Every structure is written in C-alpha cells, then in structure tokens.
Amino acid sequence: LIRMDLQLLTPDKSLTLPEVDSVTATTPDGEIGILKNHIPLLTPVTVSMLKVKQARQRTQAFAVMGGVLY
Questions:
Q1: Would you state the pLDDT for residue 1?
Q2: Residue 8, CA atoms < 13 Å, CB-side half-sphere
Q3: Residue 56 and residue 24: Cα distance in Å, rounded?
Q4: What is each CA distance from 19 to 2, 13, 68, in whole angstroms?
Q5: Of 2, 8, 25, 55, most Cβ neighbours within 10 A?
C-alpha cells in the first residue's frame, strides 16, 4: 500500500502525520475517502470528525470546525 504524509493546519499550529494510509472527511456533498495519488481536489470540509488511518496504527479522529481540504 502506498502511503502519504498528512499536514493539518490551524490558525495556531500545524501537525504532520507521516505514513498515512487514508483520510476520511465530511464535505457538504457527503463523506469522502482519500488515498495516496488521489485526483486533484479542493473542497470545503464541514464541522465533523476527520478520520486518519496511519500505518500499523488504529484510526485517529480529529475534530474539524470547518475548513478546506486540498
């Protein structure tokens, strides 16, 4: 499985998660899953939980108060 690095940005700080298998986010059109080498994407993210699956670890969830996914 090909992995990617994920960077979460907030007004106060940033967090980098290495070797991410997948990211699941909620957009105004519904829930989407993102894998490495996904098509170019720019979409708003709604208030929800962002789910991140990392290599050899369980899924982590982050509270999202809206934003943009690209």
A1: 64
A2: 19
A3: 17
A4: 9, 20, 21
A5: 25
- Identity at 45, one-letter amino acid code: V
pLDDT digits (tens, 9 = 90+) for 35-58: 988 998 999 999 999 999 987 788
CA–CA separation, 55 vs 41, rounded Å? 23
pLDDT value of residue 3: 85
pLDDT one-digit tens code per residue, 1-23: 678 999 999 899 999 999 899 99
Measured CA angle at 47 (ends 28, 61), to 5 deg: 115
Q: Is the dihedral of CA 52, 8, 11, 30 positive or negative?
A: negative
DSSP state of 15: E
Paired with 20 in beta bridges are 4, 54
